[in-house]
Every structure is written in C-alpha cells, then in structure tokens.
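Email to the structure team, subject: Acyl dehydratase model.

Hi all, the expression group asked for a predicted structure before they design truncation constructs. Nothing fancy, just the tokens so they can compare against earlier work. One-line instruction: predict Acyl dehydratase, return tokens.
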Amino acid sequence: MILPLQMLYFEDLSVGMTETLRKTIESSDVVGFAEVTGDRNPIHLSEHFAAQTPFGTRIAHGLYTASLISAVLGTRLPGPGAVYISQTLNFQAPVKIGDTVEVKVTVAELMPERRRARLECTCSVDGEVVLHGEAWVKVPSKEGGGRPMPRV
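Reply from the structure team: attached below.
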C-alpha cells in the first residue's frame, strides 16, 4: 500500500476536511508487523492457537490497525511534515486476516497560534467501528518556511 503524497500546510486545513484509506489485511502484513515490532503473540501468528480464543481465528495487531491512521496523517491529511503530538486509541472489535479496514481521518479543530490540528480517527470493517480515537499533530505552515520536499 503506497499512498500518493498530498502536501498540505496548516493554512490549507479547515474543520471538516476528511481523507480515507481502505486496506485489506493480509497475513503477510501481520507477520511483517510481528517481525518489525517483536510482538509474536500467537493470537496473531498461529491459526491453531487463535482457534482456541474467543475470536476463533488470527487477528491483526491492534497497533497495526492504528498504524494505518499514521499512514493517512503522514501522506494525505495533513501530509508530509506533520508531526504527531498525541494519539488516543479505543479498540472496539478485532480485525481479522482478510478484513478490509476503512480508515477515516477528519479535521475536528485547528489551533492557529500553535499550528496544531486535532483529528478524529476511525477505523471500520464492514461499517462496524473497530477503532476510534483522536490525534493531535503539528502542521508546517507556509509562513514558517514550509517543509522539506519528500524523497521518492
């Protein structure tokens, strides 16, 4: 999954702006996330183990699902140069291998004096919210010299 970059400055943002991303969760995504993080909980990696849990099958790491929010923030809204300040995460339901997650990020509040934006973040599968929270990010401004050009 490679999202095209959208370069927005603080001055380009307005309350209500929204970006979405859809990603079908593959087994290789979960295995790769386990390798990168070291979280090898068998509920994510072993179908035999996961079958004995209340979920009945393997589930994706909650933070993998949350990382899809980061993909939107860093590439689309606000985009390159945005810096995370904080993120709340409220997990509502598991994401299983093969599920298609829809990530929605919406500008909820702008703080011009600090060039910060509060963003509502929701991840859903088949219309059911599986994760919601909010992010605060610092966004580069045109006045402040902007941001570096991204490398391709």
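The chain is about 20% helix and 30% strand. Residues 105 and 121 are 5 Å apart (CA to CA). Ping us if the truncation boundaries need rechecking.
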